[in-house]
Amino acid sequence: MVLAIVIIGIIVIAAFIFGGMYNGLVRLNVRADEAWSDITVQLKRRADLIPNLVNTVKGYEKHEKSVFENVTAARAQTLSAASPAEAGKAENQFQQTLKSLFAVAEAYPDLKASQNFQQLQAELTDTEDKIQASRRFYNSIVRDFNMKRQEFPTRTIANRFGFNKDKEFFEVDEAQLASIQKPVDVQF
Fold this sequence. Notes:
The chain is an all-alpha fold. 81% of the residues lie in helices and 0% in strands. The chain has 7 helices and no strands. Helix 1 (2-58) runs antiparallel to helix 5.
């Protein structure tokens, strides 16, 4: 009788331990999805600001058509990115095209003094800060999920219940990292 109680106790304790491991994986998986959603919301917000910024700059110079086309194409790529890897690649391209747009703006003192342009620039800067914060949060959740998924004995539970693949980090392409890290030289 005592042996049966001990065995039942061990089974109950093991069930709680394995249940806790499974719930931890589920919690981190959901948090990673939520963090990715936050990134896409901020990317969408920035993409919504870009047409206003482009239109403001367009009014000052008509022959810079290729700059505007490049910004529009980069915006579309950012919005259509489906994975962290695609989004990282699109972000690299988008950062480069924004630099060229601000270079055009620098050539026109009236544009730089425009309150509308300054407001759009401030909103874009705020959005960029939010995107960076969202990226950091997402990558920290992905790190926690990937580590927990690989630890023993959680790895056994992870493989058994479909958590057998690491999540992708939102990474910047190393080849373009140097150019992205250089600050944009915008003088107002």
